[in-house]
Amino acid sequence: NQNIKYLNSGKNLGYGGGINFGSNYAEGKYLFFLNPDVKFIEPLDGLLNYFNQKTIASCPLMVPHKNFQLRKLPSLFYFSYDFLGFSNFFPNFFITKKYFYEPLPKEPFEVEQPAGAAILIEKEKFFEIGKFDEDFYPLYFEDVDLSYRIKEKGYKIICVPDLKVKHKIGLSAEKMGREEFLKIYTKNALKYFKKRNKKIFFYKIIISLGIFLRALKGKVSFKLAKEIWNW
User: Fold this and answer.
1) How far apart are the first and last CA of the chain?
2) Strand pairing report for 156-167 and 55-63
3) Domain boundary assignment for the chain
4) I want to staple 212 with a disulfide (CB 3.0 to 4.6 A). Which of 22, 93, 147, 225 is the partner?
5) Helix (H, G, I), strand (E, B) or coil at 131
6) Sequence-separated contacts (24+) of 152-157 with Cβ below 8 Å
7) Are 28 and 93 contacting, i.e. CB atoms less than 8 angstroms apart?
8) Using an 8 Å Cβ cutoff, are 204 and 231 in contact?
9) Which residues contact 223 (CB under 8 A, 6 or more apart)?
10) Beta partners for 61?
């Protein structure tokens, strides 16, 4: 297809780095970040209807819908609540529902942090915000960090639940294995909170405790909890 450009960076830049690399060559007004495990099931041009001076990004609903695909930005309380498993134990509790925008509104609504698997954004605003932070390598939390900076600038992201894409959830995590996934995920989580000038000590306690509880269940090794504490 003559309308498609294939770019070779020469090395693995990570998720955010790859998007930044491609965005430098993009010629359109909008950029659409799309995971390779996302499939179109209907036209998505309706995502463009919600852009204005404040709304600079929009996203479809990913199906099958899982609550972690749309969530509030992670405060110490929300992060602890989720990482320690309370959201799984109490899926109908009001805190869980508030964190994950449950029940989902039927009309388009503002979302603080959509998963980065399918997001449409104005190219000019993406560059203004500073693009993805490539320190979140190879992936995880680069989308959280971008969402934070979008909100920090006073901009909005709108989710359009009537528009849907099919997403095979957790493909990257599945390929790398649970332990490697948690190692990368938690390391980038700490980078995110450190960047926000948060008290990393408390986050390290929560993450180490969460890994320790998973190790007790035989899901990961105790070595990982110790390794995280020493970061």
Assistant:
1) 47
2) parallel
3) 1-65+104-167
4) 225
5) coil
6) 153/128, 153/129, 154/54, 155/54, 155/55, 155/56, 155/57, 155/125, 155/129, 156/54, 156/55, 156/56, 156/57, 156/110, 157/55, 157/56, 157/57, 157/58, 157/59, 157/110, 157/111, 157/112, 157/114, 157/119
7) no
8) yes
9) none
10) 164
Q: What is the pLDDT of residue 67?
A: 65
Number of H-type helices and E-type strands within the chain: 10, 8
Q: What is the CATH number of domain 1-65+104-167?
A: 3.90.550.10
87 CB-near residues (< 8 Å, 6+ apart): 67, 81, 96, 99, 100
The per-residue pLDDT for 130 is 98
Torsion of CA 23, 26, 28, 34, to 10 degrees: -60
- Spans of the chain, pLDDT less than 70: 67, 170-171
Give residue 105's pLDDT. Answer: 93
pLDDT at 39: 92
Token representation of residue 168: 């095979």
- Token duo for residue 68: 């972690």
Q: What is the pLDDT of residue 222?
A: 87
Helix (H, G, I), strand (E, B) or coil at 81: helix
Residue among 58, 54, 56 nearest 44 (CA): 58
Give the predicted TM-score (pTM) of the model: 0.93
CA distance 30 to 59: 13
